[in-house]
Design a protein that fits this description.
Strand order of the largest sheet of chain A: 6-7-8-3-9-10
Bound molecules: adenosine-5'-triphosphate, magnesium ion
Number of strands of chain B: 0
Radius of gyration of chain A: 18 Å
Order of helices and strands of chain A: EEEHEEHEHHHEHEHEEHH
Shape of chain A: globular
Number of domains of chain B: 1
Structural class of chain A: alpha/beta
Structural class of chain B: mainly alpha
Number of helices of chain A: 9
Distance between the termini of chain A: 34 Å
Distance between the termini of chain B: 43 Å
Largest interface: A-B, 24 and 15 residues
Mean pLDDT of chain A: 91
Strand content of chain A: 25-35%
Helix content of chain A: 25-40%
Number of strands of chain A: 10
Largest sheet of chain B: none
CATH superfamily of the largest domain in chain A: P-loop containing nucleotide triphosphate hydrolases
Low-confidence stretches of chain A: none
Oligomer: heterodimer
Number of domains of chain A: 2
Shape of chain B: elongated
Chain lengths: 248, 248
């Protein structure tokens, strides 16, 4: 469980996050949705510790990330996996080395155990026989899969994804969404996905928070999202024709 | 865009170095990276350094001969001048400019690309000190390989002078050999090596700094590369002057 408490964040004199609080439970896919520039990525970066919030705290099963000692932070880091918008594979390493990288850096496993784990993770995301390929030789969807495999290589307990299906066709998008969802339930991971794709929301949005201009405006699930009377949320949901058809 | 402030940048550069040298990963992790960088940096600049130094030595010999009009000055002076120019300035300093153009821009481009494609964030999320992980191997590889390149450059420049001088009939082999051995000051070689350590450190660290803090996209990576070369050149010429004041 990840608890976000009263986070405020400004860059210079521009405040980007306004007192955001949320609780993300394990085993379900939590989503942060909202329009472009509303602070979703910044919120995620605050949670994973890439950005330090001005005020507020982030608790990983009760452990405060930002106030922890360096050792505590390091231990916690090993439980956190992140899938980046651009997959962020190391372009000088091949697929296998990318997935093995967290194991090489942070575990004391012997080589054959590491390779077993790498192959297991790659298989889990549906990639086989691509071990020796370089990132530049992969399609966008494959890169995302390798990114997921790398993020879960270290028996991850917390998984964060920034727009996992941006730049992918609708079919591949749904496949990636479902893959993340399956992994989440299978290993009881606390997963947080940033997205502005309504397809994903409908497919896997078990717990959703809606961000608007840096503040949390609504919270619910894909079951209740159509019943909200928050004007900004409705504008966001029904911004395209297809979704307007579902309007009740 | 905020106005660049040289003092602020210098402060940031020092903080950057501090971060690179503290909270490192265990040493054994760096060994492979260091060896890879050594190979890369060495091979990368070998050809260009060899070509420039040979020609610079040849040109120095020819120019000196051309400017020696008085019959009172013995011809072996050509050898003396080629040797002293080479060891004091041409080998360490001119090669440094070539090195900055080749290796510096490469480092900045690589780190800049890693920054904009979120690879640096990916390292940070895993709890790896990305500054030291990415930068230390490059700095140490630079200060290992660059002095070797300078030694090679010195040798080739003196050889270039020999070839050009004797083939052009400007000096006999015996005179040249006598010249390059006359009044030899051993400290000059030490001085050249001290300079080459300093220059290598400046070029690799400044270029890494420029690349590491790239913001934006491909365009900014290009700008960072260019800045890496210009700033390294300015810094190394300044250091050249200061070292001459201090040590000679
Ligand atoms: N490092 C930074 N420095 C200054 N401002 C920033 C920084 N990072 C983000 N911002 C600002 O914070 C605001 C929110 O950005 P953020 O990237 O979180 O948006 P987003 O909701 O993820 O949008 P998108 O869906 O387009 O990715 C933007 O106005 C952006 O300019
Ligand atoms: Mg974003």
């Amino acid at each position: 469980m990840v608890e976000v408490k009263n986070i405020n964040k400004s860059f210079g004199n521009k405040q980007v996050l306004f007192d955001v609080s949320a609780v993300f439970k394990p085993g379900i896919t939590n989503m942060i949705i909202g329009g472009s520039g509303t602070g979703k990525s910044v919120l995620l970066k605050n949670i994973v510790g890439l950005v330090v919030p001005d005020t507020g705290s982030v608790l990983f099963d009760g452990r405060d990330f930002h106030s922890g000692s360096r050792e505590e932070k390091k231990a916690l880091r090993q439980e956190i996996g992140m899938l980046f918008q651009s997959a962020a594979l190391f372009d000088s390493k091949n697929v296998e080395e990318n997935v093995r990288f967290p194991l090489d850096m942070l575990s004391n496993m012997p080589m054959d155990e590491k390779m077993d784990r790498v192959n297991f993770c790659l298989k889990r995301v549906g990639l086989e026989n691509v071990n020796k390929k370089m990132p530049s030789e992969l399609s966008g969807g494959m890169k995302k899969r390798v990114g997921i495999a790398r993020a879960i290589a270290l028996q991850t307990k917390y998984l964060f994804c920034d727009e996992p299906n941006s730049g992918l066709d609708p079919l591949t998008s749904i496949m990636i969404d479902n893959l993340i969802h399956e992994i989440t339930t299978e290993y009881n991971i606390t997963t947080v996905i940033v997205s502005h794709d309504m397809n994903s929301v409908m497919e896997i949005g078990e717990h959703i928070i809606f961000m608007y201009r840096g503040a949390k405006l609504w919270e619910g699930s894909n079951e209740t999202i159509f019943d909200s009377d928050v004007k900004e949320l409705n504008e966001f949901i029904f911004s395209n024709k297809l979704m307007r058809r579902f309007k009740r | 865009m905020p106005k660049p402030n040289p003092f602020k940048s210098f402060g940031e550069y020092l903080i950057f170095l501090w971060r690179a040298f503290t909270n490192r990963e265990p040493i054994h992790i760096y060994w492979r990276l260091y060896m890879d960088e050594c190979l890369l940096i060495g091979i990368d600049s070998l050809t260009i350094v060899a070509i420039t130094s040979t020609f610079i030595g040849a040109v120095t010999a020819v120019q000196t001969a051309y400017n020696l009009v008085s019959p009172l000055i013995p011809v072996y002076i050509i050898g003396v001048i080629v040797r002293d120019m080479t060891i004091l300035e041409l080998a360490p300093t001119v090669t440094a400019i070539v090195f900055a153009g080749k290796v510096g821009s490469n480092i900045a481009g690589q780190l800049g690309t890693m920054r904009i494609t979120e690879q640096i964030d990916a390292l940070e999320v895993m709890g790896i000190n990305s500054t030291s992980f990415l930068v230390l191997p490059k700095i140490f590889a630079g200060i290992t390989m660059y002095p070797l390149l300078v030694i090679l450059a010195g040798f080739l420049a003196i050889l270039g002078g020999y070839v050009a001088g004797t083939l052009g009939g400007l000096i006999t082999p015996d005179e040249y050999i006598y010249g390059i051995r006359a009044d030899f000051i051993e400290f000059n070689v030490t001085f050249a090596l001290i300079k080459s350590f300093v220059f290598a450190f400046l070029i690799t660290s400044i270029s890494a700094f420029q690349g590491y803090y790239t913001q934006g996209g491909a365009l900014e990576v290009g700008i960072a590369s260019t800045k890496a070369v210009t700033n390294s050149c300015i810094a190394l010429l300044l250091a050249d002057y200061l070292l001459a004041e201090l040590l000679v």
